[in-house]
Amino acid sequence: MNTANFFDIEIKSYYEDKEHSIKLFCEDCLELLPQFPQNSIDMIFADPPYFLSNGGITCHAGRMVSVNKGKWDVSQGAEENHKFNLAWLSECQRVLTKNGVIWVSGTAHVIFSVGFAMQQIGFKILNDIIWFKPNASPNLSCRYFTHSTETVIWAAKNQKSKHTFNYELMKQLSNGKQMRNLWEISPPQPKEKVHGKHPTQKPLKLLERILLASTRENDIILDPFNGSGTTAVAAVRLNRKYLGIEVSNEYLNLTVKRLEDELTNPRFRLVTIKPSQ
Ligand SMILES: C[S@@+](CC[C@H](N)C(=O)[O-])C[C@H]1O[C@@H](n2cnc3c(N)ncnc32)[C@H](O)[C@@H]1O
Fold first, then answer.
1. In terms of CB atoms within 10 Å, which end of the chain has fewer, N or C?
2. Could you give the CA distance from residue 204 to residue 186 in angstroms, rounded to a whole number?
């Protein structure tokens, strides 16, 4: 498919910015993805439900708070959760270009199912990144180690894919040494939350690194679990095209605010290095 035409296809969007090639859809990704053409997306970042909203408590900013994120994050049981992961991952694989890649974040509640599903349907797993959060909240019960990491699996469409890896740029960002799969990145800074809160917002720095590592300018990026639009902001900042799918219009409105701020007001820009083309 000619990617230049992707943004002309007739799927009703919630928000569109033609100039910057951004489209947001207010839909269930399981229903919308089948309408996307196959082999049309260069890169996918997915931050799916982790299924950890189990009524427990955690510590946030020194206070006891519920771990519940919303109905969308409630576990349906191991088998149903795995069926769900297989379903959206299969659609993602179908829409990726032949050399396209996917990144999926998760904790132990979901990441083993994601990794197994990827192997079942023939993705080629490239790396598992350990995202280390240096300032993680303490464990209140004192019966477990402090949770301070998430895993991000990076995989190519299939065994034949020749994926993009901007090796030299990653080395540059790692003080001239080969970048390791252990990434120390703090949770989102307050300045990333000025337009409102999302319970599982990812730091821009994480998305910027992912995009810089595995995409080129003008590539088409898809996030099927858009949330507050962190992937969208990183894509715009790095001159990539963006498609986001999200069931909640509240979170899409937050995304639009973040995008409009990013496009009109570059004061928060963090990136200092652009990938060589
Ligand atoms: C873990 S959060 C993503 C957070 C995002 N990475 C950010 O930085 O803000 C997952 C999001 O997916 C949405 N969601 C859950 N199930 C969905 C589905 N089937 N289709 C589309 N969106 C879904 C939820 O409303 C939630 O906002």
1. C
2. 10
